[in-house]
Structures are given as C-alpha cells and as structure tokens.
Specification:
By secondary structure, the chain is mostly helical. It is built from four helices and no strands.
Length: 104
C-alpha cells in the first residue's frame, strides 16, 4: 500500500488507488496461467535477446489460446455443455472490496 501512496499523484482519489492496486491480481493470474499453459517459466537461455524472444513468443501463444477459447464459447457445440471449452470464471476480489466500501 505504501508504494501506491508514495508514487501516486497528489490529487489521486481513493478509488483510483484501489483500481491501480486491484489491477495487479489480474496480471498475476494471467502470468500464472501462462506459466502452466505455454511454458513461460521454462526458459533456459543465456542472453537477454533469447530471453526476450522466448517471453514474447509465450505471451503471444497465451493470447492466441485465450482467444481461441473465447471464440469456441460463442456457439455451443452439440454434445458439449456451453462452457466446456470456455475460460475459467474469475473471482474479482477488488470488485468485492469496492462494493464493500461503497466505491462501486
């Protein structure tokens, strides 16, 4: 919390600070998902260029897979429940926090 307060604008509202802090969870969940699905954490490289290429390729692959899952969910297939190929539902702790505080 001290980081957000120390590096915020002087006139930053509480709602904007909470929004900035809450965006961290979604990013961390996406990175964890990419580590498990496309091997984001499985690099064994010795140069920055190779590391950068590996990270870029993994993140592009993760975006492709997430898009493919979302598109597969648009039209239900016969024999499969509608959400069988869909993205997992995310629980948004920041939204719950905002609602409890009356900020959203």
């Amino acid at each position: 919390m001290a980081f957000y307060i120390a590096h915020a604008r002087r006139n930053a509202s509480l709602a904007s600070l909470v929004r900035a802090a809450g965006s961290r969870w979604a990013i961390e969940e996406d990175f964890e998902s990419a580590k498990g699905e496309v091997g984001l954490a499985d690099y064994e490289v010795r140069t920055w260029t190779a590391w950068h290429r590996h990270m870029s390729l993994c993140l592009v692959a993760h975006v492709f897979l997430a898009s493919a899952r979302a598109m597969a969910n648009l039209e239900p297939r016969e024999g499969l429940p509608p959400k069988a190929l869909g993205l997992p539902t995310r629980r948004n702790p920041m939204r719950a926090f905002l609602v409890r505080r009356g900020l959203h």
